[in-house]
Specification:
Length: 143
């Protein structure tokens, strides 16, 4: 009888541990990103640190866009520029994280990155029509 109770208790503990671990095990955070003419819209402005999937959709009817991620504390509209007036992707104070280039009109791409806590600037750095200069940037926070 004592062995049966010990076995039952062990099974209850195993079930509780499995349930707790399953509840804690979550996949990457997902952020929906809409790119329109000179505007970036996000489904959320912050996530927890770890893997993040940016589901990037070009909802513009007239322009091809790109989606670039920088980690920086600089003001979003004051990032270092190249001579061509686009953001210098190797500029001081803005570590480049990753990008999806050439997101065609009406298409979507997923970009998965691992992000540490901090402040990020997400932007379109397309040289044609100077998208960044037209305000196509947004702050994103990782906690």
């Amino acid at each position: 009888m004592k062995t049966l109770k010990s076995f039952q208790m062990l099974m209850v503990v195993a079930l509780l541990v499995t349930t707790a671990l399953t509840g804690c095990a979550s996949g990457p955070s997902k952020v929906d990103v809409s790119l329109t003419t000179y505007v970036i819209t996000l489904s959320t402005d912050s996530v927890k640190a770890g893997d993040v999937v940016f589901h990037v959709t070009n909802d513009a009817a007239d322009l091809v866009h790109e989606f670039v991620i920088f980690k920086t504390d600089l003001p979003e509209d004051q990032l270092p520029l190249t001579a061509e007036n686009i953001v210098d992707e190797a500029g001081a104070g803005i570590p480049f994280i990753n990008e999806d280039e050439d997101v065609e009109m009406g298409t979507s791409k997923d970009l998965t990155v691992t992000l540490e806590p901090g402040r990020y600037v997400l932007l379109c750095n397309t040289a044609e029509n100077l998208h960044y200069q037209h305000g196509m940037h947004i702050v994103f926070t990782v906690k």
